[in-house]
Amino acid sequence: MECEYDLALEAKYASEIASLLATPSHEAVQKYYGKLARAGICPCLMVKQTKDMGKGIFADKDFQEDELVLRDRMLVGAQHFSNKVDSFVCSFCCCYIGSIELQIGRRLFLHGESMRDRAKECKIEKSTHCSQLELVVESTNLDENGDGVADLDTTEDPCSDRHSKTRTRLPEEVVESLLNGTLKLPYSERFPLPTVINCIGGCSEEYYCSTSCAEAAWETFHSLLCTGEGSLCKNKDELRNFKQHADETNDIFHVAAQVISMIILKIKRAKQNLHEDFNWSKVLDFWEPFAMGYKRQWWDCVALPDDIDPIEETLFRKEIKDLAWTSLQFLKGAIFEEEYTPLLSLKIYGNIIGMFELNNLDLIVASPVEDYFIYIDDLPHSEKDEAEKITRSFLEALGDDYATCCQGSAFFPLQSCINHSCEPNCKAFKREQDRDGQAILIAIRPIMKGEQIFISYIEEDMPWKERQALLSDYGFACKCCRCLQEQSNSS
């Protein structure tokens, strides 16, 4: 019944939904990116329509090899839920926060909690699982509190820890001393991080590097998506359900919710400031940055996983659509208002997520913890030996993946316009000074004024047929000079 109701809803608001999904005119495209250029957001670059690639970005000056070509701030974005254990970052700009000690201590604490939870689950389920699981539980050496580390290292066992052979356990009081700041690691003052700022609304899920980031997030989207006492959302229980569902299924739903919340909050603010009645044209004005992104329904454009039989593709895509539908119902339960109904239709939700599927860039920020241990390793011999008396145990406790960086997904207004080539002239590359979630593109060869900027969406060192197969997931066949030449050679 609900799906039928949504079809009726989409029919009722067909005109508004169509206006959101309409392809922007050439004039609208030039006007929007012209505004960005005048605001200094894309100096030395131009956005123009191409003959067969849609929009493209072109150099408005000569660039030298290794020169910065683009610094693009994300419109919306979120850290991957699974990455939050390893990286404590600002929820708005994604720079690392706190201190080296807090980063290490928090990570050790959370990994310890996760291991204890898994161990307890194994102990509870021991009588209902196979003998292989029993062996794992018996080798875990649980104490009365359920603490322990599995000795076995098998990827098939849900209760084993993949780092158990490379990690050592530290006493809880040592980890606590890192968390509360009573233990200072040698030379950590050389790697200062911004102070942790709490969410304005009082939730315990989002933290920031500055008051300005906390305020920007609150005003932009978080005030509707906050579970704290100061939240503007109408139903916090439904919001918690939405967040849990996104965390357990696909955290791209968090980013889609940011888009919808951003538009709603802008409309509310405009109505308050201008004392005007609701006007759909205002929605289109605020939707403009996302109107520029290439869109398809998520369930139609998501790549078919390798382990899904092609004969099951229809079922797979229906399951993806059902997943989006469930997510949307939770979100509507949390923030729905009648006048914003078209924004919360399944068709718009699916196109927003599909836009991310086709245009998003991985959000990556290098870890200062990695920099810290590299610094220790590069110290003069005597100083290194002295420092490692303290730091070695922490490095061993972190394990082989101590350098895990911040990872997430984001949508960037300019990066999303950059087309693919298997012979790119730019690459996404974070320099030493790039310590937040901005997209950074660097020239990998000299670029002449008027030349189109290209990146590679895939690993370009693969053979032609493999590249084409991967690029088909993006909905096009590459016809760059290299592909045409290799295609000709293979004929």
Automatic annotation (TrEMBL):
Keyword check for Zinc: yes
Keywords: Metal-binding, Zinc, Zinc-finger
Gene Ontology MF annotations: methyltransferase activity; zinc ion binding
Pfam families registered for this protein in UniProt: SET, zf-MYND
Gene3D superfamilies (UniProt xref): SET domain
Annotated segments matching region Disordered: 146-166
Domain SET stretches: 43-458
CDD domains registered for this protein in UniProt: SET_SMYD (cd20071)
Tagged with keyword Transport: no
Superkingdom of this protein's organism: Eukaryota
InterPro entries: ATXR2-like, SET_dom, SET_dom_sf, Znf_MYND
Name by which UniProt lists this protein: SET domain-containing protein
Biological source species: Picea sitchensis (Sitka spruce)
